[in-house]
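Dear Dr. L.,

I hope this message finds you well. Following up on our conversation about the binding site, I have prepared a predicted three-dimensional model of the protein together with iron/sulfur cluster. For your records, I am including the exact sequence and ligand specification that went into the calculation, followed by the structure tokens. Please feel free to forward this to your student if that is useful.
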Amino acid sequence: MKLSVLDIFKIGVGPSSSHTMGPMNATRQFGLDLLERGLLDVTRQVSVQLYGSLALTGRGHCTDRAVLLGLEGFAPDTLDPDLVEPTLDRIRTTQKLNLMGTHEIEFDEVLDLLWLRDQVLPGHPNGMRVTAFGVGREPIYSEEFYSIGGGFVLRASELGQTDTQGPDVVIPYPFHSGDSLLAQCREHGLEIHELIAANERAFRPAAETEASLLKIWSVMQACVQRGFNASGLLPGSLKVRRRAPKLYRTLSESLEVRPLDVMDWVDAFALAVNEENAAGGKVVTAPTNGAAGIVPAVLMFYKRFEPGACEAGVLRFLYTAGAIGMLYKTNASISGAEMGCQGEVGVACSMAAGALVAALNGSNAHVTNAAEIGMEHNLGLTCDPIAGLVQIPCIERNAMGAIKAINAARLAMRGDGTHKVSLDHVIATMRQTGLDMSVIYKETSEGGLAVNVPEC
Ligand code: SF4
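The resulting structure of the complex is given below.
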């Protein structure tokens, strides 16, 4: 497995890693392809076709906005939120797009961005095709992209590949499953976080990885604070009111300490992140945007409420969470369009549960036990966002997932680390359950809450 922990945690914008960040990365990559092939200057028009889940829930997930911004050359991790609205207004008013920031081309959104709701490309439910045209609308280049979850994008020719760092990286402790990860740790006398840190040194110097992880932690904390300071309604037809600011004020101003206040704080942390995500704010995919609140909420819980919490514990947490995320990404999927919400909130819960054990200096056996519990009780969780917005059930579901992760860590640490269901068993079960799940529960908004709850 040659995934890096920095593949699992990426800084980006809401509301969706698969439907917002992925398409933005794809159209930007398309522009870079044109540049590399010497075709950018001769491109006069571009058309984008969205298929499957991207077409069905893309409007609520802001896929259209992401496609336009990517064609202008913006990337999710460096996007300045203040530039988004003026850029989109300009494109939509003038029907012209500044391709990769180099030259203007015609772009009529009605004709050039097509939502093919009843068609699916063969490689993945989140498929898109981008085509460039020269003079006289002559096609000059076309590519199929698949947004496979967590902001990852593959071309049709790359489907099935899980390594993202290229063939030259040789990691010292390769693993392909939970069992082989534990075996490597036993053989070399390492904790899981130590093994991952050693593997990361194959990608870049240790200091660079640590700095990147601490930056990710600071973006998570800033996101929580922005969510606490915000107010009003979230964008979209549901007119959902933010709950984190009021909960934060209530908790901060309370003179009384009640036994379950800690639970309220964890809820507040998770709600704050996912409300920011729903508003298109800056978040960390962990491992996706829809499930972005769970890992930060549990890490905030660790820092605020666990005696002896420290920066080293934060790093143990993030390395371990990354390891667990890699196992799901490699052996199943972190895409709601493939696995339902068990692949997003379930995976985030599993990552946070195992990671909290590591932060608290639990053993490797306790880590995998907690991660297994965190997924076992999310198996079968469907994805049915109302109105295609990443709001209901998504925001509240992150609060539930964070509490469940803490409980999973506590259950595991009260035991001796032995458990009948292994992490590999539960990952395989999630994958099988996802494959068996009806497509109406896999980010299409064609079943569940999305059809049973009136939109207004
Ligand atoms: S229901 Fe779950 S998987 Fe679906 S969009 Fe919401 S958070 Fe993502």
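In brief: Strands lie at 10-13, 45-51, 96-99, 103-106, 113-116, 127-133, 139-149, 152-155, 282-285.

With kind regards,
A. P.
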